[in-house]
Amino acid sequence: MERPGSWCERPKPQAPSCELPSPWSKPKQPDNWCEVQKDPVVSVLGFLLKTAAKKRR
Q1: Mean pLDDT over residues 23-46, rounded?
Q2: With 80 as the cut, is the pLDDT of residue 51 above it?
Q3: Of 7, 40, 41, nearest to 22 (Cα)?
Q4: What are the start and end residues of every segment in region (Disordered) (predicted)?
C-alpha cells in the first residue's frame, strides 16, 4: 500500500485533448473551448442517472 497523497507526486499521464479540467492544470484553451462536445455528454449522463434512480425504487 502506498501512503496517502503519493498519487499526486507521480507525473500525470498525457491528457486527451478534451477532458474535464483538472484542479492542478488549467486548460490552455478558453473556458468554453470544449463546451460544445461536453454539453451533450453531460445531459446524457444526467438522463441516465435519473433513469437509474427511478428504476431502483
Answers
A1: 60
A2: yes
A3: 7
A4: 1-31
